[in-house]
Amino acid sequence: MTLFAERAAAAVPGFALTEENAVTVAGICHRLDGLPLPIELAAARLRAMSPEQILERLTDRYTLLTRGSRGAPTRQQTLRLCIDWSFELCTAGEQLVWGRVAVFAGSFELDAAEEVCGEGLGPDELLDTLTSLVEKSILIREEHGSVVRFRILETLREYGYEKLEQTGAAVVLRRRHRDWYEALALAAEAEWISARQLDWIARLKREHANLREALEFSVDDDPAAGLRIAVALFLFWSSQGLYNEGRRWYDQLLARESGPPTLDSVKALYSHSVMAFAQGDLQAATTLVEEARTRTADTSDPLLRAYVDCADGMLALYSGDLARACLQLDIALAEFTERGDQLLQVAILYPLGLAHGLSGRTDQAIECHERALAITETHGETMYRSHSLWALGIAVWQQGDADRAARLLEQSLELTKLVRSPRVAAACLEALAWLSFERRDALRAATLMGAADGLAQSIGSAAVIHTNLILYHEEYAKKSRKELGGKAFDAAHRKGEQLGFDAAIAYALHEQQADTSTPAAAASTRLTKRERQVADLIAEGLTNQAIADRLVISPRTAQGHVEHILAKLGFTSRTQVAAWVVERAHD
Prior knowledge:
InterPro entries: Sig_transdc_resp-reg_C-effctor, TPR-like_helical_dom_sf, TPR_rpt, Tscrpt_reg_LuxR_C, WH-like_DNA-bd_sf. The protein has 34 helices and three strands. By secondary structure, the protein is mostly helical.
């Protein structure tokens, strides 16, 4: 921004950074990847345009930035010529790899580059070329823990992709990219019930932008491949509370399905319905389950029927029809057990145990949860273990053992910290609020309820989503309000809402007092209501055009909002915004 201000003052004497133009200037700098030459060229445009007009027109940066200082070398007169010059200084091999890596979104790791970009190159040739591109500042080397990733600035990526298109190989490379990320998602799904689960979650987080890129390409190129990716990502999306994103992809890809039902299409309907349940969208979930029933009405495939039975049982559970829930889930469990599928067994034992517990059959509930825990603990799994510990805590609490219930809920929270699941954290915080009131601490109960509501709202859900548990929420909220008084209850609830993921869990585990002075809370308050809407849509993976269509605004206005969000939050990419939205309660 300092460079922009200096060059702007040279172009337009008297120009200075002010509170009014600082956000716009920051948006320009972010849009230009912080590169000095493009920033200088943009500043020169102030002779004829305002900062706001420059930001609006930066969609095609090469056209806009066509004039720099007349005294500069020809190669530095325009952004395009500058990058052309850099490209010409590269060897043929470097030019080839520059174009190929442009299919990656944001950044990538060596194994992905080897598979997607390595055709025709020797064993060490690709690595050597990537290294030389780093040395020439075309790629940026970044360390993520023990992993090295390569990032390409968006300006250079667009240029590289244009060169790739000129070779006629763009579609082939994008298919290789899609195939690689399909294999990655399937591998993560296959190893979900294992000690590698947290490693897979971390990898998929790092690859989030590339997974979205693969899905976007598949929608028109190969919807069946896209559906396979989306089905495999169900566990990841669910673990991170990415329900809106998952549901959007299922909507798009299922709409392109035709012909008899396939395993992937039925799994997608099941996954879609579970995500709708998790957000309390019973109407949409009901429609999806009915569609699954209709599509499989004539099938004799027991596996397809088992998925529908499972979805039907979940519908009954969330609707409060506990007898039907137990019946349908038992049928599905028998099929999955016969097949020896531990992932599906664990996925069903959790809601089945919950249905038994809510029906008053706590012994059967505990048996289901302990069976699930036996599988998950043996394999070092984390996510489903946290689910089962929460549900087991509810069951033993209903038996009257509040102390054991608290220990189980706290164990669930310890695991939830590792997975970083807002959904499970909210459920645990809510249950601990009930226990706190029973222990005569209404203030703590109100704070925990607020924390649960805050996390749930961050993923488009509610703290309590099971019909048969809502009465407890209402009862303890009413009792806490009565004991504290309306103002004190609301103040404690607001404090809890603002805690965020990490602080809320630390408070629940008695590791620290409630403290809302977190960077995420401060950042959230800086965004306007419309900017928060746009940030949520970025997290769903929408493009600027799609955001504009959704909010009924112009694409340029949508782009302006995106740039303002990046500037206010200090981010450089949409991926960072998406991660912040998902974790804004705990970043």
